[in-house]
Amino acid sequence: MPLLIAQLASSAYGIVDLMLIGHLNGEHAMAVFGVSWNIFNTIQIGFTGILIALIPAISSAHGAGNRQEVAETVRQGIWLALALSLPICLLLVFPDLFLSLAGQRGQATAEIRLFLLWLAVSVPPTLLFRVVSGYASALLKTRKILMASVAGLIVKIPLSFVLVQGGLGHAGLGVVGCAISTAVVTWVLLAVGFGTVLTDTVHGGREALTRFSRPRAATLSTLMRQGLPIGASFFFDYSVLTLIGLLVARGGQIQAAAHGVAASVSYLCYLVPMSLANVASAMVGQSLGRHDGEAAGRVGRTAVTLTLSISFVIGLVLVSGGDLIARLYTSDASVADYAARLIVVVGVYHLFDAIFTVCSGVLRAYRRTLVPTVILGIALWGIGLAGGAIANRWSGASQTALVFWWALAAAAIVAAAGIFEYQRRVVQDSGRPQAATS
């Protein structure tokens, strides 16, 4: 639960900004915000996902009682985070390809460029905080991370309001103020996160940050070998949503804004199975580190059952309350009405996406990361994107977003069925971590 609340607080930054823009600045600002965040997520999510490989690596070392390996893995994770920050920042500073795909011109393009430039400032602290969060998640010690994330949200809300609307003697900066506030808060959050790790004298946290290690090719290679498929799966997921968002943007600001609301709701709901997946990965990893395959299998089965139950309830809420949820995001009636229709489909999509997410988390502890990525890639790109594009040819431009979301729901069903069967076979056949990625 602390991990879920921490992730909700951190991810609420964009949601709070979207609600602020939706109620105060109208369709144009919402469209700029939605396109900007779609581009940002597509660029950074794959690189950031690589760092999730730290959770099973640290949890396995902790389960084996190897404190020195825990500390060394954290230090190598810091090097990896710094290296991954560079390409993300370069792509954010030079986003021409993404802007051309979105068909953006004039004032909107200038605003999007400035928005992305400020988000680039937030990238290094965001990735470094992922290392801190991965360390805490692997040890199942997430309360301090929760406190830091909630504190960051408390600072973020008034700061965004002042920067967007103006106040304290300063004129409002409009939608770009959201990006500036995000950059400021992420650096503050990193400082607090490092402080919490320094206070850990039991599990190797202080040792990780007070001793220096050069980049070690063997450790970094292992992390990359396990992390690249994870990052690729995140990229497939978010890039498909982004590409759909860019295609939807050609249909007008109402569809673009509504798709942004639906994507935001989907991501907010996704945090529940993602948190459970990370906890399951840590617990299964610790069990495997102790060479207790039976306990690992039991934890994995429990995680899937719990996630399915919770996500079913979430899906019901989305299907029955789409209109109310949409109006929390925006006071624009046209955007809210269309977004409500999309949120109903998000409810169906979420249930099956949750199954895929938690199974992926369990499989990461077994060092099985490639097959889940292949399953997801085929489903999302083959059914979600390509299938949606084909269906959209007969639906008309006014239904583009709705058609694509139904295609995504179909893709999620296929992916969930595939990975559930794969997890069953892996857990059945394997009682300890596998060295190879498969």
TrEMBL record:
The keyword Transport applies. Pfam families: MatE. The chain crosses the membrane at residues 38-58, 78-102, 114-133, 145-165, 171-198, 228-249, 261-284, 304-326, 338-363, 370-391, 403-422. GO terms for molecular function: antiporter activity; xenobiotic transmembrane transporter activity. The keyword Hydrolase does not apply. One of its GO terms (cellular component) is plasma membrane. InterPro entries: MATE_fam, MATE_MdtK, MdtK-like. Keywords: Antiport, Cell membrane, Ion transport, Membrane, Transmembrane, Transmembrane helix, Transport. It is found in: Cell inner membrane. It is a multi-pass membrane protein. GO terms for biological process: monoatomic ion transport. This is Multidrug-efflux transporter.
